[in-house]
């Protein structure tokens, strides 16, 4: 008899190993002939790539210096609006009589203003007060504010003289800029302020041996502009005869803008 020698194979299932690249990930799969399998994903290459990119950015970013500067811009222009402010006032022992007198003055003033071309009027604050000069006397004072507005004094000033002759008190004449004109001038003042900021930034950067990288932050605001002193007048009396129109010189108006900025400088 011959003896047969051999190797007995294990009953365990054979394993298959395969690899594949999917979505930039190297994947190894080890699976038996059965339905179970395991997946291993190698993320190290992606993490290393991200770390290299961040390091490269840090190495290439230039060193910067922050510079804080401020500037002003201004524009001058003649005024385009004249405002005359009046006060109608009457005093009497009877409050109704005082109020009626003021009402009559204001009514007459608005009638005259409506006939003046290019002149607008406004009836404003009204008030009544009581005074006692002595124990036995009570006086009531009624008053109301009335304004005239025009682009110039050609029509307004003669009308103001007429109202003075009617007994209204001309408190002041005020030259100013209309809202539209002020906004136009402010935009130009802003441009002048920004131009000054740029000039300062370039000059300071050059003195430091640097150059302007960019403006990181800019803020612009309107600054208070000096107004001309209003011309004050005393009341004219109707009995004095024809009133001489008041006069007023249109003074130059100045609109100012202030600007601040944070500038980044680099070698």
Describe this structure in words.
By secondary structure, this protein is of the alpha+beta class. It has helices at 44-60, 95-114, 153-165, 179-207; strands at residues 15-22, 25-32, 38-42, 65-77, 81-92, 120-134, 137-150, 169-176, 211-223, 253-266. It has four helices and ten strands; from the N terminus they run βββαββαββαβαββ. Strands 6-7-5-8 form a four-stranded antiparallel β-sheet. Strands 1-2-3 form a three-stranded antiparallel β-sheet, with no helix packed on it. β1 (15-22) and β2 form a beta hairpin. The longest helix is centred in the last third of the chain and has 29 residues, at 179-207. The relative contact order is 0.19. Residues 1-11, 17-28, 30-44 and 232-239 have low confidence and may be disordered.
Give the mean pLDDT: 81
Unreliable stretches: 1-11, 17-28, 30-44, 232-239
Q: Gyration radius, to the nearest Å?
A: 43 Å
In percent, how much strand structure appears in the residues?
A: 35-45%
Largest sheet: 4 strands, antiparallel
Q: Number of helical runs?
A: 4
């Amino acid at each position: 008899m011959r003896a047969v020698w051999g190797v007995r194979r294990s009953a365990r299932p054979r394993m298959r190993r395969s690899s594949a690249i999917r979505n930039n990930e190297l994947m190894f799969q080890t699976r038996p002939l059965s339905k179970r399998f395991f997946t291993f994903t190698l993320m190290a290459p992606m993490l290393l790539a991200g770390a290299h990119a961040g390091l490269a950015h840090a190495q290439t970013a230039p060193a910067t210096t922050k510079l804080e500067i401020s500037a002003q811009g201004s524009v001058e222009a003649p005024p385009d609006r004249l405002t005359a402010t009046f006060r109608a006032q009457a005093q009497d022992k009877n409050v109704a009589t005082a109020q009626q007198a003021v009402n009559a003055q204001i009514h007459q003033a608005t009638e005259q203003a409506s006939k003046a071309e290019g002149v607008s009027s406004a009836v404003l604050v009204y008030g009544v007060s009581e005074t006692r000069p002595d124990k036995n006397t009570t006086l009531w004072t009624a008053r109301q504010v009335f304004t005239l507005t025009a682009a110039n004094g050609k029509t307004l000033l003669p009308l103001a003289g007429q109202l003075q002759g009617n007994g209204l008190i001309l408190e002041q004449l005020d030259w100013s800029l209309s809202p539209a004109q002020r906004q136009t001038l402010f935009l130009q003042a802003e441009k002048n302020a920004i131009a000054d900021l740029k000039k300062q930034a370039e000059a300071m950067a050059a003195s430091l041996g640097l150059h302007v990288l960019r403006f990181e932050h800019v803020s612009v605001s309107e600054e208070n502009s000096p107004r001309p002193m209003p011309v004050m007048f005393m009341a004219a009396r109707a009995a004095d005869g024809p009133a001489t129109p008041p006069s007023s010189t249109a003074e130059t108006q100045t609109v100012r803008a202030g600007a601040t900025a944070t500038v980044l400088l680099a070698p």
